Each structure stands twice: as C-alpha cells, then as structure tokens.
Amino acid sequence: MFQVSDAWKAAFPEAHAGVLVMNEVENPPRHDALEEQKTLLEKQLRERFAGQDRAAIRMLPVLQAYEAYYRLFTKTYHVQLQLESIVFKGKSIPSVAALVEAMFMAEMNNLLLTAGHDLDTLQLPVTLNVSKGGERYNLLRGQEQEMKPGDMFMADVGGIISSILYGPDQRTQIQAQTRNVMFTVYAPAGIPEETIVKHLQEIQHNVLLVSPRAQVELLKVFGE
C-alpha cells in the first residue's frame, strides 16, 4: 500500500512520513461533536499561546523543522500562518466536510503537514519520493503545477498525489461520498517519530467522533 524510494531515503535520512488508513468512514458536511471539539481546540490554542508573539511561536521545535525545509525553497510554512490567524486574529478553524476538518484540527494542534485522500481513487501503491524537477500534477483547485527539484512528494501509479511545497492533488481529493480514506504526514528532520504517531492518533480520534464504526487499516511511520 505504501513504500519509500531509495532516493527519498538518501535525500532525507533523518526525515519521516506517517500514514493513517481508515475504512467505513462517513463525511457529512457538518457534525455537532466535531464542531464542539473544534470550538474547544480554538480556545485551547489561544490559551496556549496567550502572551506570546509571533517570534515566540516560530521558535517551536516543530515549526523550526518546517521552517528549515521551506527556507531551502525561499517559502514560508503555511500551517504556521494559519495558526497565527487563529491565535492573533481570532479567526476560526474553517467549517468544511468532516474528514477534512478532522485532519485540519489535528494539523493546527500539532502543526504537522498533513494531506487527505480518497483511498478508493488511489492506484496503489503510494510511493514517497524526492522530485527531480519538472514533474507536474493538478493541484486541489485544478491548476497544473510544475515541481521544483528536491521537494518531497507522494505518487501512486496514476501520478503525484501531494508534495510539501504545493499540497494535495485534485484527482484523489476527499469527497462527500468518500468511505475509505488515507491521511499522510510529511515530517522533515527534527520531528520525532512519536510526535507523528500522536498526530495520526489524534486524527483517528477526530474521525471516530463522526464515524464511530470506522476501522483503522494502517497507522505507521516511515523513515530512519
């Protein structure tokens, strides 16, 4: 179902990737239990960072790890900006379909870059790789994107499904009718394996709020 290329291992010897596959899920546009959890999370985030400024937040070890990666491409880690908008601007976590919201809530809490895919649209196996530059895929909004060299990406037999710099693809995106789902996490060097496991378990918990009959098919961290 999931494999790691030798090129990725050579390019990122201290990095990891996490995968969570869940079956028999539901994806309603809104769910009361998830909304309650989201409101609580927003409150906890604001309390956690009360009295701190943006500079202090950016010194968090997880954000430092992503900042080091994004700096190689002269880019800024967008999850950090989303956290700052919640903490400093009072913005709310977006209300979207339940599976995406379950993932995004954990992403805001743990700050780990995560993507979600409809498992039934994937042409397995999924391979974790490093770009040579010039590879192309259609982003979530439908725009074709050319990859820069040296970026982590994942691809199935049909093509690229996500990358760190540009995010998930359109072809395998989570839909209203999604019943089997794969969540994937990119973790550059400096992020411990146990942090990734905790993050995947948190996504699992959030999904089970909405889909109590869902089952975990795979929860695993790759790398080192």
List SSEs in N-to-C order.
EHEHHHHHEEEEEEEEHE
- The shape is globular
Straight-line distance between termini: 19 Å
Strand % is 25-35%
Q: Which structural class is indicated by helix and strand composition?
A: alpha+beta
Tally of helical runs = 7
Largest sheet: 5 strands, mixed
Q: Regions with pLDDT < 50 over 5+ consecutive residues? A: none
Q: What is the typical, i.e. mean, pLDDT?
A: 96
Strand order of the biggest β-sheet: 1-4-7-8-9
Instruction: Give me the count of strands.
Output: 11
Helix content: 25-40%
Radius of gyration from the alpha-carbon trace, in angstroms: 17 Å
Describe the structure.
This protein is an alpha+beta fold and 224 residues long. The protein is 36% helix and 25% strand. It has 7 helices and 11 strands. The strands form 3 sheets. A 5-stranded mixed β-sheet has the order 1-4-7-8-9. A 4-stranded antiparallel β-sheet has the order 3-10-2-11, covered by helices on one side. Strands 5-6 form a two-stranded antiparallel sheet. Strand 7 (152-156) and strand 8 (159-163) form a beta hairpin. The longest helix is centred in the C-terminal third of the chain and has 18 residues, at 193-210. The relative contact order is 0.26.
Q: What labels describe this entry?
A:
single chain; 224 residues; alpha+beta; 5-stranded mixed beta sheet; 4-stranded antiparallel beta sheet; 36% helix; globular
